[in-house]
Amino acid sequence: MPNVGIVISNYNGWQDTVQCLESLDKxxxxxxxxxxLDDASTNDSVEQLRPHLPANTVFLPQQANIGFAAxxxxxxxxxxxxxxxxVLLLNNDTVAAPDFLETLLxxxxxxxxxxxxxxxxxxxxEIWFAGGELDRATGRxxxxxxxxxxxxxxxxxxxxxxxxxxxxxxPRDVIERVGFLxxxxxxxxxxxxxxxxxADAGVPLWFLPDAKIWHKAxxxxxxxxxxxYITRNTLYLTCKGKSHLYSRAKTxxxxxxxAARYALTKLLGRKKGRSYGAxxxxxxxxxxxxxxxx
Length: 294
Known about the structure:
By secondary structure, the protein is α/β, with parallel strands linked by helices. It has helices at residues 14-24, 45-49, 68-81, 100-107, 172-178, 190-200, 223-239, 244-267, 274-287, and strands at residues 4-10, 32-38, 57-61, 86-90, 94-96, 113-120, 127-129, 132-135, 140-143, 158-160, 167-171, 205-215.
């Protein structure tokens, strides 16, 4: 039985995924399996990926586009079923240093969740994520070190309140206590939700800078879609467990602001973009519509 299950979800990004797989095939630590999901790509990703799969890969093409959270849950369940003691969630648009997994496993304190230092793929000495801070009241997160040059300021191991699920190492017992990703969200903010649940369960989060990956950043989505999901899902998280009246009151501001900005966009004759995403995200939350954007 493998010790670590590395879960990767691909959606139309087979070129990035191949580069990621190649970096994993060079890891100094070898007791792992790769669980690769294809989330019903609309291009030829499945055919393109097959010749590039390392021998320790379980390939699970999905018949329908189920979203980031659900696809990762499929992978997590498979890793647990295969007896893995650790699950590593990893974005497909990343490249890992050869000693990345070995270092992460060695330095992660028992019973905790951890992440590596994440740098931009280009330029490779610029920080993308060096730990994060989470404001539970607003659901907003801050990436520490973003766009700063790597150096001594980002070389210290430390506890943080937020870890992006671009790359996160989860112990089996923590998953069994805290559960799986919230599939209601479809994509975006699932890491915010999970970090809140980890905090509630008393599980510390660690940033471990000796382990490194490089992130292409922005490969999964962008523009209108990202604004839509972030707007809607942030409202969902900040209203979770609250009254219906509270949810209504919380949504009024984003809904009115989004509608005004979208109306201005239409008035200027521009195409649907980020303003539409913000409006639709607030509107769909108001209507109680979650899951994939219809």
